[in-house]
Amino acid sequence: MALSTDFGPATALSCRECGTRYEIGPNFACIECFGPLEVAYEFGDVTRADIESGPTNIWRYRSLLPVPVDVSTKPNMQPGWTKLVKADNLAGELGMRALYVKDDSGNPTHSFKDRVVAIAVEAARNFGFHTLSCSSTGNLAGAVGAAAARAGLDSCVFVPANLEEAKIVVASVYGGRLVGIDGTYDEVNRFCSELIGDSLGEKWGFVNVNLRPYYAEGSKTLAYEIAEQLGWRIPDQIVIPVASGSQLTKIDKGFKELIRLGLVEPKEYRIFAAQAEGCSPVSTAYKAGHDVVQPVKPDTIAKSLAIGNPADGPYVLDIARRTGGAVEDVTDPEIVAAIRLLARTEGVFAETAGGVVLGVTRKLLENGKLDPDAETVILNTGEGLKTLDAVSAEARPAAVIRPSLDAFRTAFAN
Amino acid sequence: MSVSVRIPTILRTYTGGAAEVAGEGGTLREVLSKLDADYPGIGARILDESGKIRRFVNVYVGEEDVRFSDGLDTSTPDGAQISVIPAVAGG
């Protein structure tokens, strides 16, 4: 490129399927085989002390990410370093020994998407893009809108028009253009893929399309944070929600990098993938023993996971099988029950995707696939306030009374 | 049947930069075969060594992903629009 770019330790793009290497650029698919391109690095010496002296956000891991060394001085959302909640009450209910909830609802726009978008913004700056865009199931659109506002970029984001009200509001309030598309997420995705080859999309950075290799790396920070927060240790088991499968794939990559760089002791870990029954193409393929994923048309309350044609589905299958994990799915009522269980036991109000993860965790314990004695981390990737409809029918006042002690006594007499 | 085929950016080196080209055939298989005859080498970018659609490419006839219909045997009526699109991350 003619531009002078700074991607820190990143040196190239490399095809995950066939290994063909490309110069760093706004490209996402291999010319040889259509495989997804990934960032390749030459890491220098990275020590725990360097990381620990960094800021309390994802930029403490900047030497492991495709970002410039001075990234923390630039206008961005500074996401990450969310709480790892030791969930003893929940563990007690489930009969588990050691359970943690990585609660990513604590990010600036209340989902893990702030992590991935922050990396994409730096790539957009590097490539000289003026508009930040995405296809989204909701959370990503909000994260892009906010990050573009902070960075001083324009934004134009595309979502299925039938999203939850809160996600529509969050996606539009930051001032960029929000476009609802009359269709499913997969149709929105297809639309964006065609827009990108058109002059209408000139100089646009689509965070999950032409910036995807950079964007996706943001999910590695979940792996780094979990290990560091456990005292530089990888958990025995982790349960991760699957929409496109990118997050799960990159958490695995993050754990492998920590081991390779000697930042944690080498160990075997098991990765479990969670889907909603109403959109379970990866779970279905896993159970059938397939290594490709047959797309489906989603119908679930877990709209943030409603991707019927998951791009990284084949890698989720590979990783679950390689690590001795599994892929499982739960029904909408099980999702709702799990949201309430997590809220009641740990004071964490998860969005539906978090309910999917806990619901699947329960099911994996019941069918013996998850070891209750092994140290386990489960992910909550979003905020319950954005999916109120899922629980609003059941989460109501115990009584509505006049402001008098007598009325209270009468209402709760028994 | 004459159809039109939308070409993704990464394959436009084969079509001299054209984003859309004319095609011919009663099924997707025939259309892709003719496409490869017109633009030699493009077929092997869409299909793998065993002749199946590569796992990171989506092909649509009209609005429908062909994995929902008959794959390469999906019929391509006169005037159909065929789109070849790389898989995209979420969401």
UniProtKB/TrEMBL annotation, chain A:
Superkingdom of origin organism: Bacteria
Cofactor(s) of this protein: pyridoxal 5'-phosphate
Example GO BP: L-threonine catabolic process
EC top class, as a word: lyase
UniProt EC number: 4.2.3.1
UniProt cross-references to SUPFAM superfamilies, sorted A to Z: Tryptophan synthase beta subunit-like PLP-dependent enzymes
Modified residues (N6-(pyridoxal phosphate)lysine): K113
InterPro entries: Ser/Thr_Dehydratase (IPR050147), Thr_synthase-like (IPR004450), TrpB-like_PALP (IPR001926), TrpB-like_PALP_sf (IPR036052)
Domain Tryptophan synthase beta chain-like PALP span(s) in chain numbering: 79-382
Keywords recorded for this protein, A-Z: Lyase, Pyridoxal phosphate
Pfam families membership: PALP
GO MF, one annotated term: threonine deaminase activity
Protein family per UniProt: Belongs to the threonine synthase family.
Name of the molecule in the record: Threonine synthase
UniProt source species: Acrocarpospora phusangensis
Automatic annotation (TrEMBL), chain B:
Protein name: Molybdopterin synthase sulfur carrier subunit
Gene3D superfamilies xref list: 3.10.20.30
Highest taxon in the source lineage: Bacteria
Lineage: Bacteria, Bacillati, Actinomycetota, Actinomycetes, Streptosporangiales
PANTHER family: SULFUR CARRIER PROTEIN CYSO, SULFUR CARRIER PROTEIN SLR0821-RELATED
